[in-house]
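Me: I keep going back and forth on a fold encoding question. No explanation is needed for now; the record alone will do.

Assistant:
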Amino acid sequence: MLPTYEFFTTLRDMSKVQRGQMTLAQSQTFMKYYNLMPGAKLEKTPKLILYSAHAETLGPIVRYFGAEDKVPFTPEPSSMILFDFYEGADARIVAKYVDDIQTVDLFDGKSADFQVNLDETLTKYATEVGAAT
């Protein structure tokens, strides 16, 4: 489950980047994977970041948003979760689950609220799996 923890950490960092609290280059988890690309040079925040994984890894993410009753236990291979980060004074994040049959709204709110919820979830998650320090 470490990749899920790292994914949540990257989302939390993205909400900080969105509000100007850190740069993307300061996100250790994001840079860990970004630097694996040949010739990687981060000069500005990319307009699109693609995270690709198996459909079954969507479960913990869907659980975080409390939508497990709306999304199949075993999502189809074409399933995805889309995150839109809106900049500006009222920075917000919109998250949606999408598969061949449906689109489910997971989150639409302020970036700061998203970050607080993720911080609490990461602490709880680490405790549940025995990784808390």
Summary: The CA atoms of residues 95 and 107 lie 5 Å apart. Residues 2-128 form one domain. The chain has one domain: 2-128. The chain has a mean pLDDT of 82.
